[in-house]
Design brief:
Layout (H helix, E strand, L loop, with lengths): L4 H10 L4 E6 L8 E5 H21 L7 E5 L5 H12 L3 E5 L8 H10 L2 E6 L14 E3 L24 E11 L2 E8 H12 L11 E3 L7 H4 L1 H4 L6 E3 L8 H9 L5 E5 H11 L3 H8 L3 E5 L5 H9 L4 E7 L3 E5 L12 E2 L6 E4 L10 H6 L5 E7 L16 E12 L2 E7 L3 E4 L5 E4 H11 L4 E7 L7 E6 L6 H14 L1 H5 L13 E4 L15 H7 L1 H10 L3
Helix pairs in contact: 1-2, 2-3, 9-10
Protein name: Acetyl-CoA synthetase-like protein
Family: Belongs to the ATP-dependent AMP-binding enzyme family.
GO molecular function: medium-chain fatty acid-CoA ligase activity
Length: 543
């Protein structure tokens, strides 16, 4: 199979008059959207592709080269420029606003790791990058681009196994995200299977919202999968949009299928209990698909009883959609089935008990066997070899339990990575943070652990070398830890940083729960034992 755009471009022409994307252009108190058709997007793509082909070539960038693309992730032109650079024959390595801090060093390092030859960026990021060995080009306004003669935009030549785009993991290891290469065959497969998340047969096009930034793979790839069904994307103002905006999205913009983070669905359900308009809008959806975490079983049950068509799905940056619940039988929630055409295996996990799971997952467990999810290397949706965790394929690190034949429920993580931050979809490598503290603070910290799985921010637990637990001594210890780890923290994504006293808990030496055999601190047990303290931290947290 050739360049993925050979599948997509003819479909833009097929649905020329249909709406492709409705971008949010409103402001607080004034909701508004601007509609772009498939035909207009294709025209913009032709113009921008011609511009970038000439502009990058004059800078000595050859066809097939990796080009860094630093986007805000919030505006229509981001999606135009991303696909235009691809259509011009280059490989976009995509960075979002999340990379604006720490910015320059990480982006240039990641570009160098992927042999990037130029960096194209939004003008708002220009001050963050200078004195580089590679060309830096600002993105001009679409309206300022030179016109091109009418014609058909042709996809460039490529092999299906060649890299089409490069995204990044949603967490860092020691401050460095991992590039995730997506080849052309993976891109085509992903587009087909995103559409398989949606269930049921309806007349008229699907109109769905974005789930996050235009510069992250889930929404960035929408311009690849929407044309397969003539669907439309409507942009939300933020991930936790207001009830008023939700009503407008449904009643004014026609949104009939929704992607939503689990934590915001819980909030929306709470609003719907006292707002008939919100409940009616939820009931009228074709499908409400939540992801990122499990939701409270009582909330789940209430939504099902109210006739809300909810489903849950499992996907990762590396392997794309893999599991989705059965919309026709919502009593099986939160269990999911393997999506049709997905090639994966569930591998039993040894030496791990239910007690080692996070509190929520342990409470939901039915006492069955825990499984790792394994994608064989032969699968079309197995990630690039540079990302694979095994020589014969990829283990995602997420745990599942088979709750009934063919139905699997998510049961947390099987490694040192935890989900945290806004939407609970960002990953944090706890081990790298803990290792840095042990390295920089050996004289004042005896041991430590980072918790925050399925919580809005991470919290550091410290066993102090000193036995003193007086307030002044504890504050001095916290401040010293923050001072010594400041440089390390500055390189982390915001959701991984520990930068204030409120997110540090100091306990006596040996107070944290440990495993019996090796004496390692049990992170999930810490979350359970100190649940009250953590609840107080999150209740007053500014994160």
């Amino acid at each position: 199979m050739p360049h993925f755009l050979q599948t997509v471009l003819p479909l833009y022409a097929k649905y020329e008059a249909s709406p492709l994307i409705k971008c949010y252009v409103g402001a607080p108190g004034s909701l508004a959207w601007d509609t772009t058709t498939y035909g207009k997007y294709l025209d913009d793509l032709r113009v921008a592709s011609s511009y970038w082909s000439k502009r990058l070539t004059t800078k000595g960038v050859h066809a097939g080269a990796v080009v860094g693309l630093w986007l805000t992730g919030t505006i229509y032109s981001d999606l135009v420029n991303l696909y235009a650079i691809s259509a011009a024959g280059f490989v976009p390595q995509v960075f979002s606003v999340k990379f604006s801090r720490p910015g320059r060093t990480i982006i240039l390092d990641l570009l160098a790791a992927c042999d990037g030859t130029a960096l194209v960026l939004d003008p708002s990021f220009s001050d963050a990058v200078n004195d580089t060995a590679i060309p830096i080009l600002e993105i001009p306004a679409l309206s300022s681009l030179p016109p091109v003669a009418p014609g058909t935009l042709e996809a460039p030549s490529a092999d299906s196994t060649e890299t089409a785009m490069i995204f990044h993991t949603s967490g860092t290891t020691g401050g460095t995200p991992k590039p995730v290469r997506c080849n052309h065959d993976w891109m085509v497969w992903q587009a087909i299977h995103v559409n398989k998340i949606w269930q049921g047969s309806f007349e008229g096009p699907d109109i769905m919202n974005n789930l996050g930034s235009f510069a992250h793979v889930g929404t960035a790839s929408s311009m690849n999968y929407l044309p397969l069904s003539g669907s439309c994307l409507v942009q939300t103002s933020c991930s936790n949009f207001s009830a008023e905006e939700f009503i407008a999205l449904v009643n004014q913009q026609g949104m009939n299928r929704m992607f939503i983070y689990a934590d915001w669905l819980v909030t929306l359900a709470s609003i719907a209990r006292n707002d008939d308009k919100v409940l009616a809008a939820l009931r009228g959806m074709r499908q409400v698909t939540y992801t990122g975490a499990s939701i409270n079983p009582e909330v789940e049950k209430w939504l099902v009883e109210q006739g809300v068509p909810i489903a849950t799905m499992y996907a990762t940056t590396e392997v794309s959609p893999a599991l989705v619940s059965n919309l026709a039988d919502r009593t099986t929630l939160p269990a999911m089935r393997v999506m049709p055409g997905v090639d994966l295996t569930f591998i039993p996990v040894s030496k791990l008990s239910v007690e080692d799971l996070d509190g929520d997952a342990a409470g939901r467990s039915k006492g069955g066997i825990l499984y790792d999810l394994f994608i064989p290397a032969s699968s079309r949706h197995c990630p690039h070899p540079t990302v694979m965790t095994r020589s014969d394929g990829h283990v995602t690190g997420d745990l599942f339990e088979e709750v009934q034949p063919g139905y699997y429920a998510f049961r947390g993580r099987n490694d040192d990575w935890i989900r945290t931050g806004a939407g609970l979809v960002w990953f944090c490598d706890t081990k790298s943070i803990e290792d840095n503290i042990r390295l920089t603070c050996p004289d004042i910290v005896r041991n430590c652990t980072v918790v925050g799985h399925y919580k809005p921010a991470v919290v550091l637990f410290i066993e102090a070398v000193s036995d003193s637990t007086s307030a002044p001594d504890v504050d001095i210890l916290k401040d010293e830890v923050l001072r010594r780890t400041a440089a390390f923290n500055s390189n982390l994504f915001e959701h991984e940083r520990i930068v204030d006293r409120e997110h540090i808990v100091v306990v006596a030496p040996g107070a944290l729960p440990r495993t019996k055999e090796k004496g390692n601190i049990r992170r999930k047990a810490v979350e359970d034992d100190y649940a009250k303290i953590l609840a107080e931290i999150y209740a007053t947290s500014s994160h």
